[in-house]
Specification:
Elements lengths: L1 H16 L8 H9 L7 E2 H15 L9 H18 L4 H22 L9 H15 L6 E2 L1 H9 L9
The protein binds calcium ion (3 copies).
The site of one calcium ion has 7 residues, from loops.
């Protein structure tokens, strides 16, 4: 499982390197998270492998789908690592944490399209495909820093996840 190890350590590096919760860092986080061979681009294959590994890691009881509790637990690990690195005052961290946890519940509801309280791999993949398409600004089928340049040229209104 060296692939998963690489992905997890890349994700950890992202958490450490990310100085804030600000949106402009999102693409770097995306590349850090999924660029398994560290060539600065995320291909569709890297993305799919990374997503599959993350889904399996999130499905901690291994029943093939992710519950809201599993989804939240996976996110809380990353959130707490991020907050531990932040030098924001404790009350701000608490507020950020509460807000992020609320948003995570909302996200789960949005991901669980058929509202059966189970996030299946298909539902997870559908959201991944949307995220990839959203990141791939120049539509060349991979995520690179060039996409960040394209995005900068656009008025940065955040497209609503749908
Ligand atoms: Ca790559
Ligand atoms: Ca599960
Ligand atoms: Ca579902």
């Amino acid at each position: 499982m060296t692939i998963r190890k690489t992905i997890l350590s890349a994700a950890l590096l992202t958490v450490i390197a990310a100085p804030a919760f600000a949106a402009p860092h999102e693409r770097n986080a995306f590349i850090h998270d999924y660029d398994a061979n560290h060539d600065g681009e995320v291909t569709q294959a890297e993305f799919d492998a990374g997503r599959t590994a993350r889904f399996k890691a999130t499905d901690t009881n291994g029943d093939g789908w992710v519950s809201e509790a599993e989804y939240l637990a996976e996110y809380e690990v990353r959130l707490d690592a991020k907050l531990a690195k932040s030098d924001a005052p404790a009350e701000d961290k608490l507020a950020i944490r509460q807000r992020e946890v609320r948003q995570t519940h909302v996200r789960f509801g949005a991901l669980d399209k058929d509202k059966d309280a189970k996030m299946t791999k298909a539902e997870y993949d559908a959201s991944g495909a949307r995220a990839f398409a959203q990141q791939d600004k120049d539509k060349n089928g991979k995520i690179t820093n060039a996409d960040a340049v394209v995005e900068k040229a656009e008025a940065t209104t955040k497209p609503a996840a749908n």
